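forwarding from the other thread:

> can someone predict this with TXE?

sure thing
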Amino acid sequence: MNSGNFIKNFIGGKYVNPISGEWLDNYEPATGQVYSQIAKSDKRDIEAAVAAGENALPIWRSTALEDRFRIMNAIAEGIERRLDTLAEAESVDNGKPVSLARKVDIPRAAANFRFFATAIMHYASESHHMPGVAINYTLRQPIGVVGCISPWNLPLYLFTWKIAPAIAAGNVVVAKPSEITPMTAYLLGEICNEAGLPPGVLNIVHGTGPDCGQAIVEHKNIKAISFTGGTATGARIASIAAPVFKKLSLELGGKNPNIVFEDADLQQAISTGVLSSFSNQGQICLCGSRILVHRSVYDQYVEQFVEKVSRLRIDDPMSPNAQIGAVVSAEHKAKILNHLNIARQEGAKIAYGGQEYQMTGRCKDGYFLQPTVITGLPNNCRTNQEEIFGPVVSIQAFDHEEEAIALANDSPYGLAASVWTENLNRAHRVAEQIQTGIVWVNCWLLRDLRTPFGGMKNSGVGREGGWEALRFFTEAKNVCIKHN
Ligand code: TXE
């Protein structure tokens, strides 16, 4: 496995330097030190990647489904064989506890390839009979060269969540991981070669959003863009892609409500609430950053929630005991601290945390923050309206169901929600009215990959997952054959 000191582009099945000959510093969040260099690519590298893809397209789009199935499962096996190496690389790059990468990120990357390897084998299309006149059948064909742009919070997990359905459907891919967490995407190239993926089917180009990501969005031969990242960036991508009629899937930010009714299983709601607020240092678009608790159980919830949060172990991400690692970058740490200052100015009570966390030893210069619990703020303030995307949660009380629903929906975002109640009627009634793309009842992050995944409002457009992803990465053509 390459050491990865120089994170090169992977184009046409080969690791190559950026045409610019320039490199970007790649920092380890736990230490605040540069630990590798990443290719500083631009539109010239994207041009080369598109050319490699176009060379591979005729072969790949006509590759038998059984062969795609076999190769994609071989990629999954390659990822699984390298579980420890990839988990460590993910943790070093992102700052998340290595235990989380080993348990969630890397196994899910393998699962993404396995899921779409089988999905493509069972992907049927339709026919429509006009009795005595004609038969219509629908061909679902690959789009061609597609662009996949992914963020830093779940690096390999979200990178492969886009690539797997795209190649399963017969497309070739130009993919760009976040420049903040490029390592596992870099390591994926070799795994694809070993699995027998034809050169040029997957091309991985590293670099910044404006220099490299934007070149993918602008390239005239890239006909679909699947993006996960910030809402502002999503809007910029849409402004470029829409006028040239590119297909777009945008998975953006969230400010997810976690609603706890008076009849909830409170212990379960509290322990899962701590996970949904602080997993991955709160850097998951699905994190429950606004907790709404019925007033009758509010004091008990806050007291026991804070007690559990106070026992979370902030540690070196490489430590097996770490539950809270480093946030992803110095800039992101500063953004989160700024949000905490805004919360204070808005009158927040910091029920727990609120400060930087000073580590020692090799992590003394790392980007560590205490998990923070805020109370006492109304919903219509910046703290409860803006995505902070860090280890910060705000808890509010409500008095009745209609108020809880109104508070939950009082957000520019609409990605996910959790609802805690033992009342079946209320569960269905509330789930129906919450304006999010995903509603979990008495659980969080329980994922069935067959289900549609995506948000409403400023959380994006399009759906990933299951048949939705295969539909996104194919063009439907209707063939109508008249008969006498
Ligand atoms: O995302 P960006 P970042 C949210 C979260 C976070 C904010 C910004 O609030 O603080 O987004 O995070 C590439 N054309 N989420 O900075 O900037 C970029 O290089 C094309 C929620 O990571 O959107 C990277 O590969 N590409 C999200 C990817 O887009 C561009 C998870 C994401 O970068 C580009 C992460 C451009 N003009 C952050 N500018 C979720 N929904 O999970 C940047 N990029």
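Residues 98-119 form the longest helix (22 residues). thats all i got for now
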